[in-house]
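Why do we bother with holo predictions? Because pocket geometry can differ from the apo form. Keep that in mind while you read this record for heme C.
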Amino acid sequence: MLKLKKLKTLIASAVLGAAVASPALAEESNAHIHHGPSSNVAWDIQHIRLVANGDAKRGQELNTKMFCATCHGEKGISAGRNWPHLAGQQANYIYKMLKDYQDKKRVDTDSSSIMVAVAQKLTDQDIADLAQYYASFPLPNNPKVKNFASPEMVKHIQTLLERGDGKRMIPPCLSCHGIKAEGGTTDMPALAGQTAAYFRKTMQDYKSGKRHNDIYARMRYIAEALTDEEIEAMAQYFANMNGNQ
Ligand code: HEC
Ligand code: HEC
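The structure, written out:
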């Protein structure tokens, strides 16, 4: 079990961009890639209840005390473009992610190792409380980023979002992620307002299979079918979306 002080040092070095000197952690992470099921989280009534009854007030305290705010902000709006925004994210999805990091199911890359370390310090109740805290905010409404895609490409992306692509067996993104990409049922995450850099990275991690905590490999199949150009255009498209409207 990591001491809080060691965790603080780990976070400080991660924020400063220094290499995290923790070979043991890296080794442990690699050893778990592609072994066993993609996640241990099963949405039975106990888990649904636990998350639904999470205490946002306590979550706010944990957000500060556990240094989450250093990267994800006081209100779930992250300070850096590589750190995902959590504001307005689906509580169940946040719960699943933190459990997946804790269970070493999401160990893909260097950037996950910090999350694997912090998640070890959290109880299930802590996780439910943090999940309700972030979920209590509206979705991010970012300053608009420049969309480098051509108007044809943007139109093509809108079609993929709303209708999918039968030829490539890609179902419409919004059928699962919500009509405004505000998040769907159970643990389908919101995508609206997510940082472009994080979106691009995590889609590439699904595509390469480095991220493999998605149940039934749903997102891995979808990401694999998309071109890099499509992923890039989508990253900008979602970053500019305001899921609150
Ligand atoms: C040093 C910066 C840093 C700190 C501190 C940190 N995170 Fe993270 N967090 C990240 C990064 C980077 C990722 C994306 C990692 C990846 O690609 O797997 C992430 C991912 C997440 C995710 C998944 C988001 C998604 O959209 O899938 C959640 C939830 C999360 N963090 C919650 C927390 C909580 C709760 C804490 C405090 C207990 C915390 N984080 C502390 C940097 C940080
Ligand atoms: C069949 C339902 C379904 C469809 C269709 C779908 N997704 Fe997903 N998506 C999910 C689920 C479930 C997750 C959470 C997976 C996990 O637990 O890692 C997810 C996760 C994601 C994430 C990670 C979010 C984060 O915060 O890390 C991104 C990005 C994403 N989807 C983008 C897309 C895009 C773009 C499309 C359309 C091309 C799409 N999805 C279509 C179900 C779907």
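The mean pLDDT is 89.
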